[in-house]
Amino acid sequence: MAYGLALCFLVACGVTEIVGGSERSGDGILLVDTSHMKYTKVEPANELGFAKVVSGAGETHAEGVIDAKGVEITPPRTTMLVDDITGSTALVRNGREHLFVDLGNGPVDTAMLSKAWGFEYAEPFRCGRAMVKVGDRWFYIDTAGTNCFGATFDFAETFHHDRAMVKEREQYRIIDTQGKTVALMNYDQVSPQSPWCWQVTRIKGDTYWSGFVDLNGKELTPLVYDEVGYYDPEVRRIRVGKRDKYGFLDEHAREVIPVHYEYAEIFDKGKARVILNGREFFIDPNGNEVAE
User: Fold this and answer.
1) Kindly report the CA angle at 124 between 119 and 130, in degrees rounded to 5?
2) Is the CB of residue 283 less than 8 Å from the CB of residue 257?
3) Which is the most buried residue in 31, 33, 80, 151, by most CB within 10 A?
């Protein structure tokens, strides 16, 4: 079964970056003078020249999309939010509906947007697959809007580097972009961390012991941490705790700042407050002491 609007593109796998710095539309720079436009904000264009625009404020806040020549592909609408533009497809929220809108064929019929059936929740295409939710079921669609694997899950996450984690009943597993199982993860809990690892947890009594596995399910660190924070992409660090001592791992779950502090905060503006041997000071993402 196909869902939503027709889609006709395939995006590269991995992290999408905004490219800029030249006068060519393919480099993400608008070829029009935006100073005379009616928009209050024009976000940086993507590699194909599509850009999110905003007009109004408060109750009149409206979002839309223009192309590299300034043509309105979707005029700003107060009922629409543009969550993502990848390639020539935009992920928008029209009221409560999440829709994938093809931008590559010129202006979109806004009446069509109002009538289109979408998803309860959706995330952008990555690796040629988009994770969506209908009711309490999660699944993946391809660029034609078809359920990729003919399967739905209790939970699923967005693909990255050709891998995704899904859960059905109590079983977690890693799958590839063809829906094949790469590894079964026999843990009580599995949660995403950096683009390169998952946090895995076993519960023993009242204690949650966590470690990390790579994109193929191979153990990177044993389950020795009783406290784990969120991955910070700005500094590429994960705050961890082990028996009232704290330190930091990198995006590959390698210990880069020893777990020996009596206290450690998350990084803020490139530095973290820590306490060692009763002394309070600040460190940078490499563990070097820096001024407050």
Assistant:
1) 65
2) yes
3) 80
Other Cβ atoms less than 10 A from the Cβ of 244: the count is 10
Report the length, in residues, of the chain: 292
Residue 123 tokens, joined: 């995330």
As a whole number, mean pLDDT of residues 104-130 equals 89
Q: Could you give the C-alpha distances from 26 to 38, 64, 128, 226, in angstroms and in order?
A: 24, 20, 21, 48
At 94, the amino acid letter reads: N
Structural domain 189-290, CATH architecture? Single Sheet (2.20)
Domain boundaries defined on the chain:
1-186, 189-290
Nearest to 6 by CA among 124, 175, 146: 146
Round to whole Å and give the CA distance between 168 and 154. Answer: 5
Structure tokens at 182: 């790469």
Report d(CA 256, CA 141) in Å as an integer. Answer: 38
pLDDT in tens, 11-60: 335 433 322 222 333 333 344 444 445 899 999 999 999 999 999 999 99
CB 118 within 8 A of CB 79: no
pTM, entire model: 0.80
How far apart (Å, rounded) are the C-alpha atoms in residues 102 and 3? 13
CA–CA distances in Å: residue 106 to residues 5, 72, 203: 15, 8, 53
